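ugh ok fine here u go
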Amino acid sequence: MVWKLGLTSRPKEEDDMKLETIVHAPRMTITLAGQLDVNAAPALEAVLDQQLHNITELVLDVDGLDHVSSVGLRVFLHAQQKMKAAHGSLLMKNVGQPIADILEVTGLDRILHFERKHRQLSVAGLQMIAKGANGECYKVDEETVVKLYFDFVDKECAEREKEIATEAFVAGVPTALSFDVVQCGTRMGVMYEMLKADTLALYMEKNVERLDEVVAMYVRFCKQIHAIPSDTSSFPDAVTLACGYVDACDFFNDRQRTFLKERLMRTERHGTLIHWDLHPGNIMMQGDSLCLIDMGDMAVGTPYFDLGQIKHVLHYCAGLGLCHKFTGLGDTNAMRVWQMFVAGYFDNPNPDALKVIEADIDFYRSIKNVYLYLCGSGGETMRARRKDFIFQTLPKEFAELR
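structure:
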């Protein structure tokens, strides 16, 4: 057994397990390798009993752990109980599939907080097939692609996207199959099946003469997604998320935050799904069918959240000459698509009704831009542009609140 306390170490030998402890109060990291069984468990138990004074963060790195017996599991549970009593936290990291299977079978996965060990992937030599504000997409082979987040994106986003993509598929959302979460250096990503098809945006660009027909199909698909029932046990609540974005935004004053959150709380709760980035660049055209990609923002909420982002890409970004860059759909055609889409989605409303509808849509697209501002999406120039856009788009009385 090898001990490391601060800058000092004291090596010992164990037949079945190696244990290394590093203490930087209030955190202790214990690295385990080998087999944690009835013979080795007392060594870990002794560390937990003798060295947790002033420790509020306990990390068990089990990257090298090949096996854990029932006695070893009891030690993990004991560690969790000790940290809970100390109002601290326990994290098991680098949990391989065999250990994760044991935790799930025993139910300890619902008690212990753990992070899975991710397969390492190199993108050297791989073809980049798409690039967005938060990441890139690479072709791994003829059947799989990887969506790789940039470094600035929260490391948990890949895990969250994988979970949401799986939930969406089970709920009946037409989507690409998702596989495992992978790591590439300091970046995280999700493996997906390779869909050998154009995006709907590219399909529109190639079939401008059939735009009426294609946009009608787009409208039907969006309504199909917006009719899928779900609840917040499987997907996050969009209104709750939006209120959190408003609270976190540094350029709103308290009265402005109150105004926005009160408006959000009046949102009708539909209990159905939204994608929250449902522009044609995130929809694949497979034969006569449509299929969703980029599932990380799916939530339960009003369709207006989706309509706001669709308008932002097809109208605002197109007005800046950016829609073609982002989606492959020409900017002039994108503006046409938006006008046809909003008319089709709302069954051809009269001009006065359409004006009210678009005002509501503008509110929700402003909220999505608060989120994008917080993410730093598009760099500092785009952040400044988003701030201006938010104040220009929200009602005049909002900007006057002091």
